[in-house]
Amino acid sequence: AAVDNAPAIVIGSGYGAAVAALRLGQAGIRTLVIEMGRLWNTAGSDGKVFCSTSAPDQRSMWFRTRTEAPLATFLWLDLVNKDIGRYPGVLDRVHYDHMSVYVGRGVGGGSLVNGGMAVTPPQAYFAEQFPGVDATEMYSTYFPRARTMLGVNTVDPTWFESTEWYKFTRTSRKAAANAGLKTTFVPNVYDFSYMQREAAGTATKSALAGEVIYGNNYGKKSLDKTYLAAALGTGNVTIHTLERVRAVQRAADGTYTLTADRIDVTGAVVETKQYSCTYLFLGGGSLGTTELLVRARETGALPALDASVGAGWGTNGNVMTGRANHIWDTVGANQSTMPVMGIDDWANTANPVFAEIAPLPMGLEHWISLYLAITKNPERASFTYDAATDSAKLGWTAAQSAVSVSMAKKLFDRINAANATIYRYDLFGDNKTFADDFCYHPLGGCVLGRATDNYGRVKGYPHLYITDGSLVPGSIGVNPFVTITALAERGMARILAEDTAP
Ligand code: FAD
């Protein structure tokens, strides 16, 4: 196949990739972004780009015949999941033996499907996780830069206290306060002025219409509207979609060669392309980047990759749970899908937990308080290459998930005891009270300072870089995209200053 040359190639278009694309474009370097998902900018027959959560169609999930929503059941009935057509939909659930990982697919990666919570970790915990990074500089320069670029804003506290759309959050806050626990507002990239217009009936509803995991049609500042729009605006950046990079090699002259499969909307490979570049940036996310490099090392394509490539992976301690409130503690039929508050017990050294108060918009009163807990689970797993399937297998075990559950359980047992309430048994299947078999926050696999130097330069391979969540060592204590973005900003500033000088 013909070789298509670009000075710089970025694989993926999530947070790390989007930062790389913008900063390369601004530096005047012609850059090609290769994304396996589609560009989400064209309305379907219903006039909307994304499908709704209540009536999902082919646009919802990545080549599935049935949706696989995080909450499979309600009152033990399979009310949530629906049959759909196979299509490159926006949300993927990647299955490993004891852990499923949700990721976004499309131009914008996870920003298309996530809850928009834009949280900066406590500086002390960041410093603990990244001992080789100057935390003072991160908090004075790169975190603020990331927040500004991402369009982070906060809910108006007066509106929050009065609106029916956040009754569920206020009810969970009261239950936490009864247990002596602190809650804190968390910023978001959803435009809260737009949300207030939704509530007033003067703007088309998105967050107030249940939209989130299958994409928001309005209101959310996903990466295609921020970093990637700015990257395209430099005139130096091009994006190819529906192309999945399968192999990375290094040529004798030190340039990198990529093999990519271009697929059509049925998933059939319609063309296999070769690309070549001088600078290669890996932004396929924790799963995507780690798989590419584990495969490259084990097939002999990049044999000098460090032994730590594939290691140091964690779930950010993710575990989900639901509580049943008393009949008088209503959560409301109307719920905004954008979380704005967390229970912050991270400073409790005996059992650090940060729990996001999550929405469960069902259009009817159900008295459920739902939470996504981030626990300080120290367990880590590794990816290994499976030649039979040419894919990376994750060695995470059920016992490692149980560590997250026991930490979350300590916190929610306290809340239940203080409120004389119980867990919900009907939400996650098998009468489980904690969902411990999936996560939203895959982190690690190519940890900063181990698989790479302290800026994301891959050890052993000049001009090969990592910019995404695979750099984060398995845990960051809060929702991760602000940290991923800020670390990418830091890495790109250094790389552009030192490595690409003419
Ligand atoms: P990603 O955003 O995952 O982007 C990687 C991109 O690369 C994808 O588009 C993928 O299709 C593409 N790709 C991968 N491999 C290849 C390949 N071989 N070839 C071509 N393309 C490839 N985080 C928060 O901070 N706040 C939240 O509120 C929040 N809520 C979430 C809710 C959900 C439902 C989910 C799934 C995640 C949530 N997250 C949240 C997590 C957050 O979205 C991720 O941490 C973040 O997107 C990771 O960024 P990244 O740059 O590492 O990669």
From TrEMBL:
InterPro entries xrefs: Cholesterol_Oxidase (IPR052542), FAD/NAD-bd_sf (IPR036188), GMC_OxRdtase_N (IPR000172), GMC_OxRtase_C (IPR007867)
Limits of the Glucose-methanol-choline oxidoreductase N-terminal domain: 104-127
Family: Belongs to the GMC oxidoreductase family.
EC code: 1.1.3.6, 5.3.3.1
Cofactor(s) needed for function: FAD
Biological source species: Streptomyces fagopyri
GO biological process, one term: cholesterol metabolic process
Organism ancestry: Bacteria, Bacillati, Actinomycetota, Actinomycetes, Kitasatosporales
GO terms, molecular function: cholesterol oxidase activity; flavin adenine dinucleotide binding; steroid Delta-isomerase activity
Name recorded for this polypeptide: Cholesterol oxidase
One Pfam family per UniProt: GMC_oxred_C
Keyword entries, A-Z: Cholesterol metabolism, FAD, Flavoprotein, Isomerase, Lipid metabolism, Oxidoreductase, Steroid metabolism, Sterol metabolism
PANTHER family named in the record: CHOLESTEROL OXIDASE, FAD-DEPENDENT OXIDOREDUCTASE 2 FAD BINDING DOMAIN-CONTAINING PROTEIN
Domain of life: Bacteria
Pathway(s) of this molecule: Steroid metabolism; cholesterol degradation
